[in-house]
Design a protein that fits this description.
Low-confidence stretches: none
Largest sheet: 10 strands, mixed
CATH topology: Alpha-D-Glucose-1,6-Bisphosphate, Chain A, domain 4
Number of strands: 10
Helix content: 10-25%
Radius of gyration: 17 Å
Order of helices and strands: HEEEHHEEEEEEEH
Strand content: 35-45%
CATH class: Alpha Beta
CATH architecture: 2-Layer Sandwich
């Protein structure tokens, strides 16, 4: 988990590292996934939980719409692809391209405690039609009573395709669930979970994405 102290001095390094991880293949092991979705994993030296990467080759909206729905309006639409999501709020906006977000999750499994997450989101416009976000767990808030705190490393890279109306979405995800949830079980279950998540994201935007961003129909 990252400290909020001097976060701005580290944010550019997060974005640069995440962009390299999402665009390069060195160190990644490809896993089986359905057509249209690619999935990889790689171990990292600082945590026994593996870092995963998925990519949806064609998402049915340009990058600005996908990025707005998948990243900027996450609290409104997270339930569409993460059924465990309960609620959340924006805690603060410490910079023009940064905000701290708090979220709660209920696994819905007997014996597994509810989880919460406090993360810092930082953004970068990489190029026209290419948007990047990095997410790191931060110590801005203590865990909610009765919840285990997730330690999360995430990132999203969205690129408008040559047709101008669809995009490619790449996502990084490493989750240390805390408590008694073992890393070996997390590493075992994550591929199936992430494929389902990617499919739900693809379906959400194929159906028009955020209702508030849909263009009105003519006639």
């Amino acid at each position: 988990m990252e400290s909020m102290n001097d976060w701005s001095s580290r944010a550019e390094a997060w974005l640069t590292r995440d962009h390299a991880l999402m665009t390069g293949d060195e160190g990644w092991k490809a896993l089986s996934a359905p057509d249209g979705i690619a999935l990889w994993r790689r171990p990292m030296p600082d945590d026994p939980n593996h870092l995963f990467r998925w990519r949806v080759a064609v998402v049915g909206a340009p990058a600005d719409v996908v990025f707005e729905g998948f990243v900027r309006r996450i609290l409104a639409h997270h339930k569409e692809w993460t059924k465990e999501f309960v609620d959340g709020r924006v805690v603060s906006s410490p910079g023009p391209s940064a905000r701290v977000i708090y979220q709660r999750f209920d696994p819905g499994v007997p014996g597994i405690t509810q989880r919460d997450l406090c993360s810092l989101e930082v953004l970068r416009d990489v190029a026209p039609g290419v948007k990047l976000a990095s997410f790191r767990s931060v110590d801005a808030l203590p865990p909610e009573p009765g919840h285990e705190r997730i330690d999360w490393w995430g990132a999203a890279l969205c690129r408008t395709r040559d047709d101008g109306v669809t995009s490619e979405l790449t996502y990084l995800d490493r989750e240390n669930q805390g408590g008694l949830f073992p890393s070996w079980l997390m590493n075992l279950t994550m591929p199936k979970y992430l494929i389902l998540q990617a499919q739900q994201v693809q379906r959400f935007f194929a159906q028009g994405g955020p209702p508030e961003l849909r263009a009105p129909r003519e006639g």
